[in-house]
Amino acid sequence: MRFAIGDTDFLLDGQPHRVLSGAIHYFRVHPDLWADRIRKAKLMGLNTVETYVAWNAHEATPGTFDFTGGLDLGRFLDLVAAEGMHAIVRPGPYICAEWTNGGLPFWLFTDRTVGIRRDEPQFLAAVGRYLDALAPILVPRQIDAGGPIVLVQVENEYGAYGSDPVYLEKLERMHRDIGLTVPFTSVDQPMGSMLEDGSLPSLHKTGSFGSRSTERLARLRQAQPTGPLMCSEFWDGWFDSWGEHHHTTSAAASASDLDDLLAAGGSVNVYMFHGGTNFGFTNGANDKGVYRPIATSYDYDAPLDEAGRPTEKFHAFRQVIARHAPVPDLPASMQPGGSGRLTTDVVAGLEARPTPASDVAVRLDSVLPLAGLLPTIASWTTHETPPTFDELGAASGFVLYRTEVDLPEGGVLTVAEEVRDRVLVRVDGRTVGVLEREHHDRAIALPPVTGLLELLVEDQGRVDYGPRIGEPKGLIGAVRIDDDVLSRWTVSPLALDPVPEDALDALRTAATSAGETLAGPAFAMGSFDLAESGADLDRYLALDGFRKGVAWVNGFCLGRYWSRGPQATLAVPGPVLRAGRNEVVVFEVHASASRIVCMCVEPALGHTEA
Q1: Do β-strands 422-427 and 449-459 pair in parallel, antiparallel, or remain unpaired?
Q2: How far is CA 9 from the centre of its chain?
Q3: 578 C-beta neighbours (distance < 10 Å), count
Q4: Residue 293: helix, strand or coil by DSSP?
């Protein structure tokens, strides 16, 4: 088959074709749930699935690529093809996506001479290596080779960043040189000169917007007089940041804008169809004068919620699509009020069997202070001045800095430039306070002490958009007490994703701890039993009473929690759960008023503006 760009339409084997696509990021969804989410995209009436490719997830260290498990992009695309659907792939190299560092590997920035997102030899050499690694996955899965891929996007909203046609031309050529033959696109907001600045005549321009569809398409047509109109990011919701409200949008208003778009003959990619979750330490951040880390949930108020269940928006969008294209029949479980789950029987054409479930309370009986687990999660090195995360090769998570101090009268600890992003300050095993980047904190008073000073530094998410992308993490600038610069540091990143088995064994064999509270920084473990595996039903971990930290279920890192919200639960993918004994581990940085967590059936994503 052939896919091409005609004077007015996309052409599939020479016939006019409308792209009805939805975004599913494979790296935000458990791989055992990919088929379910893709199937539901088809049931909403979509014919295409779009995904970014997260370069930093695949090449965590230079020259070593991982395309296995949850990063098996080839398998994801094969599942799209198995549903008879097409695929749009957006390899970047920059993707934004509210993903840490906008998808760019942190190690690109350790040599500050590398010129990011421009015509610079070192950057383009790294991009070339990345594209070469993608070639065996993408090239044979193009539509003209019998695969699902019909479009590939070059760069991402480049017009909002700069205007370097030479860079874009070289990047386009690099995509062609690896064997990609399908049409290439660009995407920008139909505002100002972004559409022109972010594209080339050889790239088909598409827009990104979520309202005023007719007006936005008119601006797109002005920038591109011929060819199919397409909104390749139709924003149907928004992401959440810690400390803010949970974002929702009107299903009726979004559906109306979608109807206007389709009535004008446009093609669409719904962003997001299913948002998923920023598992582990993968969330990004924004900094427009104030640093704002993005929450763990990427529910996005999308047609499928974080657990893959159809929302009001799913049914509203499906009704709109049905006015413009055929849609398949829904099984009973997918009808409004149904469970929203698909089992193997549904895929075979039968109705789903409901899976009974109830909330399960879990007491965290085993507790060890952070110091007790350091032998299993730390690898110490010594430094005259505190190194950044980047200099240590740590992409994310926590780094513990230690030095000895002699302060018979106390003093004021100051970080010369900035803390990135949050520092728990401790002296002789006692917590003194916190320095937060969001508050522009750089100084804290220390009590009289002679002994160990510990600074537990958390990267809360690398900036994914704007001029601060790629900045190093950790303690930036000299660390002083009063006028004296501190030196002779012992430093270690903490191995937390995954937690080493030795650390888990230490928790399992720790004596059962009495009491109902938890003093951090500490790890706590508890267990619960399930009669059956949870494959057909995602759950949510509620941590009422806990303040800030990270949680795991059966070794799978669910991500960060924070009492400031908005979200009060962490998504637990059904395939992570198993029949019999299951383990919950929590790393609480501060303290908790309770040792009880709950495996809940329903999420709590926080208050909204309404």
Answers
A1: antiparallel
A2: 33
A3: 15
A4: strand
pLDDT of residue 358: 85
Report field, pTM of the whole predicted structure over 0.90: yes
Residue found by looking up tokens 């969330």 in the block: 283
Burial class of residue 375 in the structure, from the number of CB atoms within 10 Å of its CB (0-12 exposed, 13-18 middle, 19+ buried): exposed
Position 532 scores a pLDDT of 80
Residue 233 annotated in active site: yes
Alpha carbons 590 and 544: distance in angstroms, whole number: 14
DSSP 32: G
Q: Is 609 a catalytic residue?
A: no
CB neighbourhood size of 522 (10 A): 23
Active-site entry in 50, 83, 155, 157: 157
Torsion, Cα of 53, 38, 184, 193 (10° steps): -80
Q: What is the mean pLDDT of each run of 10 residues along the chain (610 residues)?
A: 97 98 98 98 98 98 98 98 98 98 97 93 98 98 98 98 96 98 98 97 98 97 98 98 97 98 98 98 96 98 97 98 96 75 44 58 96 97 98 97 97 98 97 97 97 98 95 97 97 97 96 90 96 81 98 98 98 95 98 96 90
Q: CB-based contacts of 373: which residues, under 8 Å, 6+ apart?
A: 503, 506, 507, 523
**Out of 233, 454, 458, 588, which one is annotated catalytic?**
233
**Coil/strand/helix, residue 33:** helix
102 torsion bin: left (phi>0), alpha (psi -120 to 50), beta (else): left
Instruction: Look up residue 133 and give its DSSP letter.
Output: H
